[in-house]
Amino acid sequence: MIIVNADEHAGLYLLTPPKIELPSFTEKLKSVLDTGAVDCLQLRLKDVGDDEIRKAIDAILPLCNGLDIPLILNDRPDIAKKSGCDGVHVGEDDVSYDEARAIMGEEHIVGVSCYDSRHRAMELGEKGADYVAFGAFYPTQTKEAKTSVTPEILEIWTTFTTVPCVAIGGITAENLAPIVLAGADFVAVTGGVWNHPDGPEAGARAIKAAIIATDIE
Question: 74: part of which helix (H) or strand (E)?
Fold first, then answer.
């Protein structure tokens, strides 16, 4: 499976907060997905047990399936495959790309964090990664960023390869323009949606509107 945008604009790759409470989060997420602004969703839970991850998938996956939005699980290809997720995202400290691909198979998405390393991105892209993620572009409160990057890394990447690239790290509707203009296929957002002062639905719409406005300029 290849991760693709629904239109010609950069896509919104939404990440869940690291802690959620079911079923209230499911209701909130449904409202966000119903805006039509989200192109891909990553379930990114931290410091929780396997049963909690599975319960979250069971609640969220039907929402994504109903709207044809890929659900990507962070870190855990074993759970992702058995639970019916569309793919998995792995970082440098998680299972290797090779192991994740072996578990998921060729028909599922395997995305990889590449931080500030074009070498890592090129190596894994050549192996068959469905997308590579670069960041952090801006300071973020979601997690401690290992590296910081500028939009130039996206410009260089998109010049030499067609493997989709995801930009991550502190991205909001107000600061995403340089990233979109540099060629990001997706912008990955957490706080810019969930912490939006007017609510997450407004946050998702604002991100999508900013992407479209930037592409039109």
Answer: strand 71-74
Please say whether the beta carbons of 14 and 50 come within 8 A. Answer: no
β-pair type (165-168, 71-74): unpaired
Mean per-residue pLDDT over the chain, rounded: 94
Q: How many CB atoms lie within 10 A of CB 193?
A: 28
As a whole number of angstroms, the longest Cα–Cα distance in the chain is 47
Q: How far apart are CA 78 and CA 73, in angstroms?
A: 10
Q: How many CB atoms lie within 10 A of CB 137?
A: 26
Q: Specify the DSSP element, H or E, that contains 11.
A: strand 11-15
Q: How many CB atoms lie within 10 A of CB 208?
A: 21
3-state secondary structure of 14: strand
Summarised one tens digit per residue, pLDDT across range 114-173 is 999 999 999 999 999 999 999 999 998 766 777 899 999 999 999 999 999 999 999 999
- Mean pLDDT calculated for residue range 92-110: 96
Q: Is the pLDDT of residue 4 over 60?
A: no
Segment 29-58 mean pLDDT? 97
- How far apart are alpha carbons 162 and 107 in whole angstroms? 19
Task: Report the alpha-carbon distance of residue 191 to residue 102 in Å, rounded.
Answer: 32
What single-letter DSSP state applies at residue 107? T
Looking at residue 105, the DSSP 8-state letter turns out to be -
Q: What's the confidence (pLDDT) of residue 143?
A: 67
